[in-house]
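Let's study my pick:
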Amino acid sequence: MSFGPLGMNTGMDINSVVSKIVDAERVPKQQRIENEQIKIDSSISAYGRLRESLDTMKNLMTKFRQEKAFAARSVETTNENVVTATATTEAIAGRYAIDVLQLAQSHKIASDVVDKDAKFGPGKLQISLGDKSFTTDVTANSNLVDIVRGINNSKSNPGVRASVINDVAGPRLIVASSISGEENDVSISVDAKQGDPLRKLEYKTLEQRVRDLENARAAAQDLLSPLTEEEQALADKIAEKNIEAAKLVDQEISVQAKQAASGVDPNAAKDVTPGNEISQAAVAAAAAAGVEATKFLKPEERIPGWSETASGTLLDSYWEPEPELDAKALEKSPDVPGWSNTASGTLTDSYVTPKEAQQALEAKLANEQESIELALASGEITPEQAKEMERARLTPDERAYMERVDKAQADLKSAQEAFDSYRGMTEVQAAQDAKVLLDGVAQLSSNNNIIEEAIEGVDLTLKGRTDKDQPSSEIDIEYDRPGVREDIEQFVAAYNQFFQVSKELAGVDPRTGQAGPLSGDSIVRSADSRLKSVFSSVVEPAPQDLKTLTEFGITTTRQGNLEINYDMLDRQLNNNFNKLGDFFGGNQGFAKKVEDAIHTMTGVTGSIRTREQSLTERNYRLQDDQAALDRRMESLEKRTHAKFTAMQDATSKMQSQLAGMMNALGG
């Protein structure tokens, strides 16, 4: 082997040499950082375990501290297939009998089988759910799926769900309420042309259809009524005035009749009544004198159908029969001006009376009606034109009234046809509320199967109906003694867990002699000491026989654990359950004292939290130390590598020169 003048082999491994030099510098410093890092991590983990065990105990004490923690109720039921129950702290302990008469259910309707290729629309579906409604438009040539989508996707849909089921005979539309209860029933009205399959998707109950028909009849009756209430009141008022006016006129006429009758027969005047109304004898005497005596009679005697309420109308419309003449003269004489017995023949022959004019008008109207009917029969005019021709002869008021009549008749006909020809959807499931009989006397109901506050502080969940031959389901509500017993057991277990963890972290393993991560730490000793002090303290607000933890049968063993004397604990739970809150609860109770003691350790400013924060900061510093060490070692590695590289280059050059010299000497 050939060495250079410095004794170095030209084939030296520089990287290996540099690595060893750097490691020699790094290892002791790196080991110190890693050892400290392990210790810090171990301590942080240990404090975390200690804090968690203490916080578990603290959380249990928070539950105890609440005043209602010991007012919890346990609920048992004899038949969970019929009813279950939950009870709050407001519930009164006792036993209750429950009979579920019916469960709440939602409304569901179904259409008849429709043709799978049926096309619907155009039209509208107005769907109601209880007192809420919405409308969905159905475009022309829509299919059943389109209608389902229109219903389900409507933004104003309050809770109606539609679907299609495929019957063996064909598809059916199912519409159901997503909300149970009898007030949440579904109804569907359809606005579409006659013959459109959309009309088959209407749904109205028999009661609704009867009600619609009755409403149409009532509306028709109102429209056909000639007088409103205001009009009738005015007519009655006018009638009253006419009665008084008629009496005054009759009194005046009876005076004239009396004078006329006395001129013919002096004895007739004696027959005049005290009310100045002429008697039949006076009438006869007046008639003999040529006086129109019939008009001197009392109204009820001379006007057929007289009544007090009808007096005004009858007085206005009634005309007195004229004295008999020859047939034609008698008919005309009262209307012929200048009529007398000597001129009667000529005048009555030539004069056209109002009655003759009326007869002529009636004959003309009859001829016109006959002409209209003939034209209608021959097809020269349509029924609508004929109707207009008839209406043209009416006064504006009469035409308005006839239009009201037509509308009423059309509405009534439509309602009757809708009632008679209903072919809409049918009910599959009725909407109904849940109904419960409590203790055989009290009836309860709900629109769903949860009856809240059925009994004060008790909610019932209904699962099924009570059969007739089945006994009532019973629910028992009691103080939750087992629950409180379990909570106390959890508290004791939580402390024992803390005690075991603290021994493990701060003690020395007797088998290996290895000390725990918190060995010699004063925080652990302080935590246990504070808790033991609370356990042995007296709770002043508590009753006399419940002032210390030992009176619950909870004591400390020689090893430092807590143990429970269950005989003493059960005796307190059974006899003094209502007093437990006075010991554990409140701001001065046992639970609050334990919370405060633990808070001084695990709180934000507690001793354990402070120690954890200090360790975390040390951890950050170690990370900085590690980064600084890494930078130094990287710089050392670069410098060392550069030096050895330069040395190798110089050595190689010297060896080359030496070889040249040796060759020259040898030559």
